[in-house]
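Why show two proteins at once? Because comparison is the fastest way to build intuition. When a single record is shown, students tend to memorize it. When two are placed side by side, the eye starts asking what differs. So, the first record is below.
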Amino acid sequence: MVRGKAVIEKIENQTSRQVTFSKRKSGLFKKGKELGVLCDAQVGIFIFSNTGRLYEYSNSGMKPLIERYQAVKDGQKLLSASAEAKFWQAETARLEQQLRTLQENHRQLLGQHLSGLSFEDLKHLQNHLETSLYNIRLTKDKFIGDEMQELNMNESLMRQENIELHRKLNIVHQENTELQNKLNDQGAVNMGITSPFTKCNITAPTDKNSVRLDSCHADWDDEPESSTFW
């Protein structure tokens, strides 16, 4: 009969958990002892229970084993720090060399420090400069073309706005003309209507103490009346 594989999970029952802890602890210490005897190794085991109690085993004494452990860890830290320092020193040297190379290439592109270059180097430098000049001209032409396209677009927009403004101005002029014609027609009508007032002819008689009003008439169509006052 095949034995099923035990499931490793926390034991909820406290009594069973304590029994299992005691058995497993003893088995672990036994395995550590066997490992030390069989392989001539120094073995140290620390165990803290869930109640905080310490259990330990060492086949060569726990204190010297801990001191050896600490010494090895400190040595590893020193080795790690030394290796890291060497790495950054090499990285710094590499970056400095790269910077010097870039500075030298920059001076050569400016036409300086060319005496140490071979014919092939000079030819390569010339090709590089011609390629750079070609790319610069392409970029400049593209920039000018974009500027011209933008200006043409703005000109078209301004022309459309100008046409629209002229159209609105013509509408305003037409409205003003119609309004002026209406005002002129109204003025002509008003000129045909006069205010009624009386016109009289006054003559001086021979008598110094009297004034004669010969005739008085109004502007309306009534018949004129003659009156004489003495």
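Second record. Ask yourself what differs from the first in the token line.
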Amino acid sequence: MYAYMTHLLRSCPNTSLEFRTGSSYGFSVFSKRSNLIKSKEFSRRNFVVQSCSTLPAGEVGLVENETTQIGTNVKVDLATQFGWKVRRLAPIGDEIREAAQLQALSFYEPTFIFNDFFFELFKAEVLAGLLYKLRNSPQDRYACLVAEAELTGDDEKASSSDSKQGLVGVVDVTVLRDQNVLNHLPPDSQEYLYISGIAVLESFRRRKIATVLLKACDIVSNLWGFKYLVLRAYEDDYGARELYSNAGYKVVSVDPPWQTSWVGRKRRVLMVKHNNLTP
């Protein structure tokens, strides 16, 4: 969860959001049992959740304008393999909420007390961050990619039960220019594609969904013209590191001990992939 919040704050330097009630997008920031907190900061476990104002049974939606319309090609499949397909997230309330829910379930760390309350806060922050990025990012600078079952009659492909599940995986793709990362890239590199927030529903893991998500990231890198893809993984998460290595990522650096151990953070590795795709 800490890793997700770190990326969220990096991707959204300005966390103030504009909400409208009664939107056609139709989703709530908090569940009915936890619609409290008004413009306060709540800190827990080394991260800060900045809550939004109380909404009395109201709903919030994505506030769009002419320059921030999202994803006109959401129906185009970026990658299709192993019975799964990956596309851009559709700017629809239910789907945005579903993607945020999926990431929240994957990155939330349960607590001994008030677990439901803390989870609702964390889910609300994930949803708010996703809304902010969708509303404020150009279409060639940020994309939320989602995986779902491929609709086909082939028995070797997804089953009918899979096709009814909806979203089974999600990943964020963001153009960044962190100098600490650029130091590990060729001198002429000015920006790179940062892969983060990759999540797969627990009941669908080990079914190659993450592999297809990473393949779609390669396609986005090619479409946007970026040679290098970058991601981070925990040093002791050997399963994730093997997944990334198999996808072509190589470790280029490790968090220094002074930056991790004394503040209770897990050590991470920085992994880079050179995209060899051609148009």
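One difference worth noting in the second protein: The CA atoms of residues 67 and 138 lie 8 Å apart.
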